[in-house]
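Q&A log
Question type: sequence-to-structure
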Amino acid sequence: MSNAKGFSLIELLIASAVGLLAIGIVGSVFLSGYSAANKRSLELMLQQDVNDALRTIKEDILRAGYNSGGSSSLVISGATSVVYTQSNCLAYTYETSSGQKYAQIKLNGDDLKYKLGADIVTVANACSGTGSSLVYKKQISVDDFIIAPMVISSASSTSQIINIKLIASLRNDSNINTNKSIDVKTRNWN
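Response status: OK
Response body:
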């Protein structure tokens, strides 16, 4: 008989089992890290998109009522304030270098729509029609758009503080959601 040195079948099976267990643990840690990073990436995308939508709304509302040549702020026909509010809708007008523009921001189903145009708007049609989406509607569902105006007045003028709350989630994972709000004080241009 020869003195062959090597591993026995039992030793080889134990070594293989330990190796497979180590590979399984490393793979599991990698996959859970990848899943957490992917979820965080989606959360950040949602937060960024909602923040961008709120920033756009705020910047546009700050223009509401601007009238370069007039002695008073522009107001939508029939409205009592610079920003006309209805349930889930804002509408206002302002002057640009190309003329008077009317803007509308409203919740349309599960999408937040923004419309800017030169059409004559009254309170009767201020929140009608559709526009372009303020969020990436293929991935983001707007669950609610809440508008809470509050009138503030002093001896010389009246204005508004508008609280806007935007609640959104991902279309393919409603567990990833956000709830943001901002306060916008309308300007008096007179």
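Response note: Helices lie at 9-61.
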